[in-house]
Amino acid sequence: AWTGIPYAQPPVGKLRFVAPKPAQKWSGILNATGESPKCFQPSFGRGTRSEDCLYLSVSRPKNGMKKMPVIVHVHGGGFQVGFMGPRENSDFLMDEDIVLVQIQYRLNGFGF
C-alpha cells in the first residue's frame, strides 16, 4: 500500500478557507509509506490531526500487475468526522483483484 500521497497543497495560511489547489510536484521518489495526519475533527479515533491532511492512499494485491477495477472509498461521517481507514482495514480486499483508493478531506468549518 502507498499512503500519504498528497492530492492538494496543504490548506494552511492563505489557502485555509479556499478551494484546494493542486499538489505541487516533488522531485525524486515520494516516500509513501507512513501514516498521514487526520483532518481536524471532534475526538474520533486515534492519531495525529492537522490542517495539512489532504492525502490519499492506494492499495493493491501484492502480485497485482494486470489491469484491475478501482474502488474509490470516500469515508462517511456527515462531513463532521472520519478519515482514511488504516491499512489493516483494506487487507481483506487485497485477496481480490482490485485497486483501493481512499481519500481524506477537510471536515466541519475547515471544509463544509
Automatic annotation (TrEMBL):
Gene3D superfamilies, alphabetized: alpha/beta hydrolase (3.40.50.1820)
Domain of life assignment: Eukaryota
Keywords: Glycoprotein, Hydrolase, Serine esterase
Pfam families: COesterase
One function term, GO molecular function aspect: carboxylic ester hydrolase activity
Database matches in InterPro entries: AB_hydrolase_fold (IPR029058), CarbesteraseB (IPR002018)
Domain Carboxylesterase type B: 1-112
Family: Belongs to the type-B carboxylesterase/lipase family.
Name listed for the protein in its UniProt record: Venom carboxylesterase-6
